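Severity: low
Component: inverse-folding endpoint
Summary: output formatting inconsistent between runs
Steps to reproduce: submit the following structure tokens with default settings.
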């Protein structure tokens, strides 16, 4: 019975990264083949050898080798041995150009020999059919060819009984383990566990099929040796086909959308599953025929032709599948969101790369088959086999990460445990628990805890991807006969180098994640927009951590690079000596740089300033925005950014430490009751301290300092208060506005600037000079008053400028 499932697809970027990385393996192997030509000329029979052979054939017509095909194969082996000797001679001579020419000549000779062998096989094709029939009659002893039909009937009966046993086991397993399947899976680990358990049960079914089929055939079979070999080939190939079906079924999960890991729709999953299953069946049928010919000892030339034909058939099938599903795989490679450039390029060209690889692999495989060279078969489907193995291993690594190293903290079970903790805490306090609010709180806490782990989970995922990628590259290169690790490899210390690079990368990212998280904790969540000057800065550890992080990261990179060079055989002792010489040269030639570095170190040790604090160093002032190893950047409150080397700093005036005092002056009339004004200010200060928002900003309450001075038209009163750094400007506006309202309600008036001019009595002077004298006196008085007011305005502006500097 079929079930319908909701298409839930979380956590699909994991296989997306793996698919994008595996797609680069073909290009890497092509480069590895070129690099290995000087090291293993016999095994590296590729396109260059074929082209060289064709070029030589144009200038000189080569006659086919006389005698049997076996003699031609022996001549090919002799040519391969000569190529090996020539390669070694070139290496011993030390002449790079001569060695390259010798390698090209060897490739050309091998290509010519391969062509000769192919011509011999083609010339004997008319007789191959008769030879095969003769061999089959001989295998049937006195039965002729009738043993083939009888063997196929027995094989069919045995296979049917084996399949029936496998089906019965599958039904029993589905009945026994049906509780493991849930459509509401939460994490990728749950999906992987279900898929692996289902695959394990199905593999047991395949083993049961093979065992039952073999047992039944042994009971009903004729006992003929050729029939037994045929049965073993059929049962083995069918078992391999069923195993591939298990892998495709659990990889694409066309019947369980809720457990599907790749980001595929139901139609895409079913299309890929059916296409790859059909392609596997066609390729396995061709392979089975070749294997059957080899097991029965049929004509060797026919066996070579069959192998080349099977490889060509696999090339066509895989190329058609790659082209048909090019858009689907391209979408998987790009992933979700904004893809980097390399992914977009690979997504657009992956099918061309794959088809080119299939054709190239078929050509090289054909040459190796004709020359009886090692690693001749399986090259076309090698990337697919490696991809399947990589997917299985990657799933196991993800399962270890999610179940052992970093278990998820936001699963339903984890939320239930948090709810229980909340319930126990509420019961101990004697309160009543609200289930809905408790579950909401548990959900929030679980999400927050998992968010704290997510950077490390992503790091482990990337590490798993790197391990699987390099493992896949090594396996694929080994299938080509060009091992990346071990003796005789391209890189003798490949595993050691890979381990050092991997550990260095993991250490680098771990240090970066830990320190960046601590910096985020120490950094204020919101910037104080009201703080014009002197706002509270970040903590001391938040100031020092970025410098410490950069130092650690540079140290990790340098140590990893040195170890890698040592593993590659580079003598690193001269590098250390050279570094010491360079250090001395820098010490003597860049004294200013050294002064800046040491001055900054001692300023930071003395905790003279921190990131986010407002400082004045004489030549510049502003908020400390960035601190490097030799300088810092100050952002002025009007926007200007100044970079100051530490060595240029003579003194530091910090406006963001401990506390700040604000003094406010205002003018009142002479008839003001000073005692009443003091009480009003005191009461207002208490109200501000009791306020929920403004109260925590005060370190000392608002106080009246009385009358500070007396002028012609007003008394100058002053108040002061102590606040946290940066809060004085916000409170200044509140204090001015509050005092204005309170004074207006209590009849206290602010004094306005005024000038009293006394004009002499015009009757005291001569009559003819009275108007002029009066006018001159008035003008003089007005000028004096204006000058007095201008002086007051300049003084006020100077005071504002001083306040602006603070």
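Observed output (run 2 of 3):
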């Amino acid at each position: 019975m079929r079930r319908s499932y909701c298409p839930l697809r979380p956590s699909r970027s994991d296989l997306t990264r793996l698919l994008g990385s595996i797609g680069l393996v073909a290009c890497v192997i092509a480069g590895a083949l070129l690099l290995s030509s000087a090291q293993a000329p016999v095994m590296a029979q590729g396109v260059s050898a074929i082209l060289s052979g064709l070029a030589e054939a144009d200038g000189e017509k080569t006659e086919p080798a006389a005698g049997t095909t076996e003699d031609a194969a022996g001549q090919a082996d002799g040519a391969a041995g000569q190529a090996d000797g020539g390669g070694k001679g070139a290496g011993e001579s030390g002449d790079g150009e001569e060695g390259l020419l010798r390698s090209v000549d060897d490739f050309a000779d091998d290509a010519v020999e391969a062509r000769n062998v192919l011509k011999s096989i083609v010339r004997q094709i008319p007789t191959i059919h008769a030879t095969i029939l003769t061999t089959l009659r001989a295998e049937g002893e006195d039965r002729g060819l009738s043993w083939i039909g009888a063997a196929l009937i027995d094989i069919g009966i045995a296979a049917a009984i084996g399949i029936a046993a496998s089906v019965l086991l599958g039904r029993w397993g589905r009945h026994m383990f049906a509780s493991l399947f849930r459509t509401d899976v939460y994490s990728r680990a749950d999906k992987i566990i279900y898929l692996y358990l289902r695959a394990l049960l199905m593999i047991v079914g395949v083993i049961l099929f093979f065992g039952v089929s073999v047992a039944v055939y042994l009971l009903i079979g004729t006992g003929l040796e050729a029939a037994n070999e045929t049965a073993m080939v059929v049962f083995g190939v069918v078992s391999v086909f069923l195993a591939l079906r298990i892998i495709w079924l659990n990889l694409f999960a066309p019947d369980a959308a809720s457990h599907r890991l790749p980001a595929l729709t139901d139609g895409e999953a079913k299309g890929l599953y059916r296409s790859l299953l059909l392609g596997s069946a066609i390729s396995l049928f061709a392979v089975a025929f070749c294997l059957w010919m080899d097991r029965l000892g049929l004509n060797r030339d026919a066996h070579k032709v069959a192998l080349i034909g099977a490889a060509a058939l696999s090339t066509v099938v895989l190329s058609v599948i790659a082209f048909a599903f090019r858009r689907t795989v391209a979408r998987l490679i790009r992933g979700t969101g904004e893809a980097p450039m390399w992914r977009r390029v690979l997504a657009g060209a992956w099918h061309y790369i794959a088809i080119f690889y299939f054709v190239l692999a078929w050509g090289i495989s054909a040459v190796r088959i004709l020359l009886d060279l090692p690693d001749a078969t399986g090259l076309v489907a090698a990337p697919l086999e490696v991809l399947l193995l990589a997917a299985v291993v990657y799933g196991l690594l993800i399962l270890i990460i999610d179940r052992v190293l970093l278990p998820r903290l936001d699963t339903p079970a984890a939320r239930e445990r948090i709810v229980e903790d909340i319930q126990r805490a509420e019961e101990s306090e004697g309160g009543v628990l609200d289930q809905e609010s408790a579950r909401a709180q548990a959900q929030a806490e679980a999400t927050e805890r998992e968010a704290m782990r997510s950077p490390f989970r992503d790091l482990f995922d990337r590490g798993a991807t790197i391990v699987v990628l390099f493992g896949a590259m090594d396996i694929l290169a080994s299938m080509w006969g060009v091992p990346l690790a071990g003796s005789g490899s391209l890189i003798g210390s490949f595993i050691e180098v890979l381990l050092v690079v991997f550990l260095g990368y993991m250490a680098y990212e771990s240090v970066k994640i830990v320190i960046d998280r601590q910096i985020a904790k120490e950094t204020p969540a919101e910037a104080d927009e009201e703080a014009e000057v002197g706002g509270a800065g970040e903590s001391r550890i938040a100031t020092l951590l970025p410098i410490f992080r950069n130092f650690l990261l540079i140290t990790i990179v340098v140590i990893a690079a040195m170890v890698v060079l040592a593993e590659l055989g580079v003598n690193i002792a001269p590098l250390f000596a050279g570094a010491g010489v360079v250090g001395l040269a820098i010490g003597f030639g860049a004294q200013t740089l050294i002064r800046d570095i040491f001055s900054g170190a001692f300023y930071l040790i003395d905790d003279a300033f921190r990131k986010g604090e407002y400082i004045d160093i004489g030549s510049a002032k502003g908020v400390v925005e960035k601190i490097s190893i030799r300088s810092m950047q100050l952002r002025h409150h009007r926007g200007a950014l100044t970079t100051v080397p530490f060595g240029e700093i003579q003194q530091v005036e910090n406006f963001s430490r401990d506390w700040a005092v604000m003094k406010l002056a205002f003018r009142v009339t002479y008839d003001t009751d000073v005692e009443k004004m003091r009480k009003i200010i005191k009461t207002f200060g208490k109200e501000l301290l009791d306020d929920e928002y403004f109260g925590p900003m005060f370190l000392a309450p608002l106080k009246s300092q009385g009358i500070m001075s007396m002028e012609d038209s007003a008394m100058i009163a002053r108040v002061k208060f102590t606040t946290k750094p940066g809060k004085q400007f916000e409170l200044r506006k509140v204090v001015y506005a509050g005092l204005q309202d309170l004074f207006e309600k209590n009849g206290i008036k602010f004094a306005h600037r005024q000038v009293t001019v006394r004009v002499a009595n015009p009757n005291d002077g001569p009559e003819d000079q009275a108007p002029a004298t009066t006018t001159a006196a008035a003008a003089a008085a007005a000028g004096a008053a204006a000058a007095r007011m201008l002086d007051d305005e300049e003084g006020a502006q100077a005071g504002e400028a001083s306040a602006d500097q603070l």
